Amino acid sequence: MMTCEYFGICGSCTLYEKNYQKQLDFKVSKIKEDFNLDTVDIHTSAPSHFRNRAEFKIYHDDGKITYAMSRLDKKGVVRITSCSIVSQSIAAIMIPLLEALQANPILEFKLFAIEFLSSSTGELLVTLIYHKKIDEAWREEAKKLSTQFGIMIIGRSRKIKLVIENDFIHDTIMIENKPYHYKLYDTGFIQPNVKVNEKMIGWVKNKIIQTESDLLELYCGHGNFTIPLAEKFNKVLATEISKNSIKAAKENCILNHTDNITFVRLSSEELTSALKKERIFRRLEGIELEDFNFSHVFVDPPRAGLDEKSLAFIVEFDTIIYVSCNPETLKRDLEVLKKQFDLKAFAVFDQFAYTHHLECGVVLKKRKEIS
Ligand SMILES: C[S@@+](CC[C@H](N)C(=O)[O-])C[C@H]1O[C@@H](n2cnc3c(N)ncnc32)[C@H](O)[C@@H]1O
To answer: Which amino acid residue places its CA nearest to atom 13 of ligand 1?
Structure first.
């Protein structure tokens, strides 16, 4: 059983009273009740050290720095020396890195927060965030720290970003025994639980029968789902609002030798307008939307779920695959979709263990009209 001395104090884990399995059982039964389901496919997380991304505040007290998290009771912060949910490589470096920062006045002064991003290939990107202007003197010291620990470092302060080595790391994930390679940048969305991410992509891929038709994806991020799913389709049009994520997605396509995806930076609202021919976008120049023969739409929206226009638009597809990090907005959107679609599969993925959050995946098929 995973234990943490900060359970009940640190605000990061909110379902700490139960062991791993019990907290999952609790969340699954709530989902079944809320969605009126008899069965769901359940995908577990590792019980500890599952987060490849973490952010800690830095607490300064009498010249000494410690990591800190917001308290569960919301009354200030709790100082911590370890975290049981971050990946082994983040857990291992936390204290030695803090000691090195403590010993270096240029790196320590006005350090406000530290973000970690680890990869399964062993690379680590550490972002040091300051409440002071960082400069060339900072860069020199950060370079030494980067060499000492073999890590990439980014320094951030207001309007300044200094990069030591790279502002990305390489990650490799395994889907059905096949490796997929990604560049993960410090900016842009990244699924926080690598093993659960692999399970989500595997589940979605497995639900799609190989087809000669095309896929439309909204909210594609850096191509996390897009690249493995593209193998099931003739062509893919994938869209996303973030410029940085689209840049990463295009690079990730090259890394994986994938050549049947077109990535375009468009919000879901803009894409809907473009496909309905309501607006013309320069970003779509050279792309013939008419050439796509879409059968499936895949959406993985932020917590707000689908906007009204996109929701009304996706009912035109035969198959909808919807991955959601917020059961409340998923439920709201399903109320609309279920008028024309049958629910074919429902899965839960314990992406955020020890919290009340549960990621869900659904497959919907258009109901055949009886004439
Ligand atoms: C939950 S993340 C999923 C990303 C990707 N599917 C993945 O697995 O990494 C949601 C993504 O939607 C993007 N996004 C947010 N609002 C959007 C909008 N209105 N239109 C298109 N993309 C949006 C975010 O930048 C983010 O990359």
So the answer is: 219
- Say if residues 13 and 69 touch (Cβ distance below 8 Å): no
Instruction: Please name which of 51, 58, 196 lies closest in space to residue 118, comparing C-alpha atoms.
Output: 51
Instruction: Provide long-range contacts, Cβ within 8 A and 24+ apart, for 79-82.
Output: 80/6, 80/10, 80/56, 82/4, 82/5
- Of the listed ranges 1-10, 75-84, 159-168, the one predicted with least confidence: 1-10
Which residues' Cβ are closer than 6 Å to ligand 1? 189, 191, 219-221, 224-225, 240-242, 245, 267-268, 300-302, 325
Say which amino acid occupies 228.
Answer: P
In this predicted model, what pLDDT tens digit does every residue of 263-293 receive, in sequence order? 999 999 999 999 999 999 999 999 999 999 9
Residue 359 annotated in active site: yes
Domains of the chain, first to last: 53-169 (2.40.50.1070), 192-366 (3.40.50.150)
- What is the rounded CA–CA span in Å between residue 117 and residue 357? 21
* Position in ligand 1 atom list of the atom nearest CA 242: 25
